[in-house]
Amino acid sequence: MNNPVELLIFDCDGVLVDSEPIALRINLRLGRELGWPMDEEELTRRFLGKAAPSIYRQMAERLGEETALLWERRFTEQLNAAIDTELHAVPGVVEALDALGAQQLRTCIASSGSHAKMGRTLRAAGLYERFEGRIYSASEVARGKPAPDLFLHAARRMGVAPGACVVIEDSQYGVQAARAAGMRALGYAGGLTPADWLAGPRTTVFDDMRKLPALLAAL
Fold first, then answer.
1. Are 113 and 10 in contact, with CB atoms under 8 Å apart?
2. How buried is residue 12: exposed, middle or buried, by Cβ count under 10 Å (0-12/13-18/19+)?
3. What's the whole-model pTM score?
4. Cα dist from 175 to 8, 54, 153, whole Å
5. pLDDT per residue over 125-155, tens digit each?
6. 182, 165 contact by CB (below 8 A)
7. What is the Cα gyration radius of the chain?
8. Which residues pair with 137 in a beta bridge?
9. Mean pLDDT in the chain?
10. Distances (CA, A) of 174 to 31, 69, 90, 182, 184
11. Paired sense of beta strands 135-137 and 165-169, if any
């Protein structure tokens, strides 16, 4: 029997901030320029939801350290420039967070991104103050997603048992990490990840953030 929901653990990119299409566009262009052309499906499968060190290792194995460093530097520069002019909150997420706040459900963020990146994107989208002091990064644990370490770390820091946590994720590695942590998952398929990549045990797939409060009520 499932425990009552005590904590919602949000991923950041693609769940709270609509940064994934921007990152995809930049990486597709850099891949063509630097010798690793990929289509959207391959890039999403390889990179989406993974921590930066894991992505860097893939680049270095394929292209060598020098090119991987160049890709990483140019990606960061171009992403930061785009964040400042293009980034918005994921459609419907502000309404969902308002409704969840009225229900007094506890929330936090656990993301593969660095604290610096999350601080920048959350502020650009007007969401940072909603989660300030409750933001956890894969840089704080030994293993990134799909390992469960980050979500278990967030639950410990928030003082909540894993079985009472629900994770909101948009990547296949994220929902895998939630299951490995013994948590229920809500897989958001309104972005880049196909719905069938998110489906699995203890996971409900949805495509509209406005549905989130009702989905949680059903749990």
1. no
2. buried
3. 0.89
4. 14, 17, 16
5. 999 999 999 999 999 999 999 999 999 999 9
6. no
7. 17
8. 111
9. 94
10. 24, 25, 17, 13, 11
11. unpaired
Q: What is the token pair recorded at 11?
A: 């991923």
Q: How many CA atoms lie within 13 A of 169 on its CB side?
A: 32
- Print the SS3 string covering the chain: CCCCCCEEEECCECCCECCHHHHHHHHHHHHHHHCCCCCHHHHHHHHCCCCHHHHHHHHHHHHCHHHHHHHHHHHHHHHHHHHHHHCCECCCHHHHHHHHHHCCCEEEEEECCCHHHHHHHHHHCCCHHHHCCCEEEHHHCCCCCCCCHHHHHHHHHHCCCHHHEEEEECCHHHHHHHHHCCCEEEEECCCCCCHHHHCCCCEEEECCHHHHHHHHHHC
Q: How far apart are CA 15 and CA 131, in angstroms?
A: 14
Q: Which tokens belong to 5?
A: 């929901």
Q: Which two tokens stand for residue 144?
A: 């990134």
CA distance to 87, 204, 211, per residue, from 219 (Å) = 31, 10, 13
Is residue 91 reached through a cis peptide bond, with omega within 30 degrees of 0 on the bond before it? no
For residue 98, give the amino acid letter: D
**Residue for token pair 């953030």:** 209
